[in-house]
Amino acid sequence: MDLGSNIRTVRKRKGITIASICAATGLSQGFMSQVENNKTSPSISTLEQISKALDVPLAYLLLQTEERMQVTRQSERRQTSGGTENVSISHIGRTPHLRMTIVELSPGASSGDVPHAHEGEEVHVVVRGTVMAQQGEDLYELGEGDAFSWNASVPHRVWNAGSEPAIVLISVYTDSRREVDPL
C-alpha cells in the first residue's frame, strides 16, 4: 500500500500545506514528511486525524489505486459481440468481482441457441424493447423498465422476440476474483 503517496496526492490536490496538517493534528512536520515518503506508518488514530485535516474519509486514504473510482467514457467502451448474430455488447465497467455491460439484441437475436450456464449472479434491466428470459422451466416476457435476476450457474437464455431492437443492462457478480482489465 502506498499510503504516504495517497496522503501527499490528496494534500497537494487540495492545496493544503504540511504545516497546515501539522497545525490541525499536532503532528510534527518531520513525522508528516516521513509518512508522505512511506518511511513510517501512522497509527489508525493518527491516520484518522490526518484524514479529518484533509477532509476525506479515512477509508479513501487506504484504497489501492485499482480500487479507486474508474471512469469509462462512452467513446472508450470496448465493443464485442456474443450469442447469436446481431448481439452487440458494450463493456461499461468492471471491478474484480463485478462487471456491467449493455447488450443490444436485434430482432430474433439471442444469448445463444441453447441455454448456457457460468459462474456468478446476474441482474438485468430491460432499457428498451421486449425480451424473453428463460431459466430452467421459468419463461418470462419482459418490457422496458422490467428487471430480472438469477443464479447464472443454472442454464439460461435471453432473446429478442420483438420486432424492434432491445437493449438490456446486465450486471454480473462472481465470487472468483477476475483481473480488472481496461474496457
TrEMBL record:
SMART domains: HTH_XRE (SM00530). GO terms for molecular function: DNA binding; DNA-binding transcription factor activity. InterPro entries: Cro/C1-type_HTH, Cupin_2, Lambda_DNA-bd_dom_sf, RmlC-like_jellyroll, RmlC_Cupin_sf, TransReg_Diox_bact_type. This is Helix-turn-helix domain-containing protein. Residues 7-61 form the HTH cro/C1-type domain. It comes from Saccharibacillus brassicae. It holds the Pfam family Cupin_2. It comes from the Bacteria. Keywords: DNA-binding. CDD domains: cupin_XRE_C (cd02209), HTH_XRE (cd00093). One of its GO terms (cellular component) is cytosol.
